[in-house]
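go over both lines:
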Amino acid sequence: MLATQLGPSGLGIFGQCTAFLAFIGIPIANGILPAANRYIPANQSIGEYDKVNRWVISTRTIAIGLGILVMIIVVPFAGIISDYLLGSQEYAPLIVLSAIAIPISSFYLTQRALIQSFKQIRIWSFTTLLISLLGLPIVIVLVKRYGLYGAVGQIILTSLIGGILATICFNWYRGKNAESLLLFRWDNQIVAKMGKFGGASLTSAIIFSAVILIIRSLIINHFGNEQAGIYHAVSSISLQYLSIGLFSLSVYWFPHLAGISNHKIVVRELNKFLRISFSIMIPILVVLMTFRTQVIELVYSSSFSAASALLPIQIIGDYFRIIFWIVSASLLPMVMIKQFMGLSISFDIVLLIISGYLLKQSGLPGCILAYAIVNGIWVFITYFMQRHLIGFRFTLPNIRLILSSGTVLCLAYLLSGEEFSIGKFILMVVSLGIWAFVSSTPEERQFIMHPRLLFSRVLDA
């Protein structure tokens, strides 16, 4: 929808606005809220309900208050920011709209994070699905009527609706224990813990977002808004499927790992996390790899056809990223701050250097290739770090899963092309069937052959 209405150039500008919005929202999304996700479930598991109450109120107070402060700081400098990020001060109103969105999106993100902290995954999923459905007509109306300004404005409106919906669901779950939105609290002890724990996540996120902003700015300044739009199309598709098979699972796994101190159990859970994520992600990646041209034209338009040549490189990079991200997923929940910081910051620095070099040498394909290269390197770095820290090892079924997944992705690339054909579709389905058989365990094959066993286990759980 956005691609059709805005075109490659407009989508490039919108992508830079959303990247800026993510950057200025980092202190909340990656500083305050991860600390709440760590300490609320930890306190609840030992029956410290008064501390849980204090954390809920303090998290809301600090997150929304900080969002308002960031908005006040950004608005006066909208022209300067627009000139640097978008190449012209004519887009300053878009920066102002992005700043206004910060406190409202902070409200929405905070309420969702609190639902996550209580491990209410069904409620979290319900609110996510409902706001996605409600947001679609809002996007269509505002973008058709107001173009770029409507695209940024819909973030404000959907965040407000999402925040209200999440509040209703959270209060329903908490019942008589629900903390009122009108309660405000500054707790020095909680702020100190937020600073210590959230500071690591915050610093990492700031550097990563700054790197992405710099890369986007380099593309805009050297290759124009149209190429930035192509880059945004590729990265947006990547973000969508990673949200399905990786980040959505972390909603459960992050607070779950926070309550585990035994290294052997952590290793077991990380292997389980990887197995579930790959089982979801690989079929999606294979379909995207095989029919990338058709997917780009369907999701965007023929104006974005250049993105189809870049998507295979992005998919390979995401294949490595899933492994790297999951293997390192226990660092923050286990409060291994130094190791987390070293791993994430070094990744960002190397990504910026290699992206800048390859962007200059090869243009946009070089930039996407840099992402794949760095993620591939960090798989090995993360594996050996975790092997030293917690004795991590891939299980034999997971080694088979990783290797067979890489193989089926390569086959999907060989199958891909400009034209859709039934033969190609059949070969893709057969290759996925072979992958499922080779990578699965005997127990998992029983579930595939007899789905009732799976449903009965889910219902029992």
Observations:
- The chain has two domains: 1-213, 229-334+384-461.
- Residues 188-223 form the longest helix (36 residues).
